[in-house]
Design a protein that fits this description.
Elements: E1 4-9, H1 16-27, E2 30-33, H2 34-47, H3 55-63, E3 67-72, E4 75-80, E5 83-84, H4 92-101, H5 105-116, E6 123-128, H6 131-135, E7 141-146, H7 149-162, H8 169-185, E8 198-201, H9 207-219
Parallel strand pairs: 1-6, 1-7, 2-6, 7-8
Antiparallel strand pairs: 3-4, 4-5
Helix pairs in contact: 1-9, 2-4, 3-5, 4-8, 7-8
This protein binds cytidine-5'-monophosphate (C5P).
Cytidine-5'-monophosphate binds next to helix 2, helix 4 and helix 8.
Length: 222
């Protein structure tokens, strides 16, 4: 039997990571944080001093990216070339760099196989922008999670504050809008709900409610 794949796509800050982790936990399935791969690539480019428009420098980096994901008692850890970058990849600067790199078609192509390798038995919850449209078009259940830009900025603010980072909500809102603009309008794999995806608007919902809706939908598909 093939591994089940459930996809969770949507704009940044809608709560995809939290929802995906809860679903992976509930079903005891694997979890793919595809954004983390783009973020790790961004850090690798910065480390290796490769310019963001240097496609011929970025492509081999994407192909040979030495990254491992592991679940530990300290949560999900991301290791790049032997170094724990789990916290570094979460900064706004890295997110913005990742989103610029992610607009390059050759880079997206180079990362496809690596992402598909996460589809392992018994199942996978894949979190990203194009999981249901491009990476796992055959997924058994697809979810598109949205929320207003204002509420996403507010949540990001609380997350960053909890991590001790000092930021302004207005800056976060501008950053989210810039990232939405890039993710929605890029030529390759733009952010769009997959056909037959269940759309959930989490603006006025708590995470427990979002989880219940998503789980009931998945249960009806598997
Ligand atoms: O989801 P996260 O904010 O970690 O992703 C960082 C950036 O990587 C996003 O702004 C988006 O541009 C890009 N990304 C993507 N496709 C994915 C996941 C992330 O283009 N599947």
């Amino acid at each position: 039997r093939k591994a089940y794949v459930v996809t969770v796509d949507g704009p940044s800050g809608a709560g995809k990571g939290t929802l995906s982790n809860m679903l992976a936990d509930a079903y005891k399935w694997h979890f793919l944080d595809s954004g983390a791969i783009y973020r790790v690539l961004a850090i690798a480019a910065i480390h290796h001093k490769i310019a963001l428009d240097d496609i011929h420098g970025l492509q081999p980096l994407a192909n040979g990216l030495d990254v491992t994901f592991s679940v530990t008692d300290k949560g999900n850890r991301v290791i790049l070339e032997g170094e724990d970058v789990s916290d570094d990849i979460r900064s706004e600067e890295v997110g913005s760099t990742a989103s610029q790199i992610a607009s390059i078609p050759m880079i997206r192509e180079a990362l496809l196989k690596r992402q598909r390798a996460f589809a392992q038995l018994p199942g996978l919850v894949a979190d990203g922008r194009d999981m249901g449209t491009v990476v796992f078009p055959e997924a058994v259940a697809k979810i598109f999670l949205t929320a207003s830009a204002q509420s996403r900025a507010q949540r990001r603010y609380e997350q960053l504050k909890a991590m001790g980072q000092d930021v302004k909500i207005a800056c976060l809102l501008m950053d989210i809008q810039a990232r939405d603009e890039r993710d929605l309008n890029r030529a390759t794999a733009p952010l769009v709900a997959a056909k037959y995806a269940l759309e959930i608007d989490s603006t006025a919902l708590g995470i427990a409610q979002v989880f219940e809706i998503a789980k009931a939908f998945i249960d009806s598909k598997i």
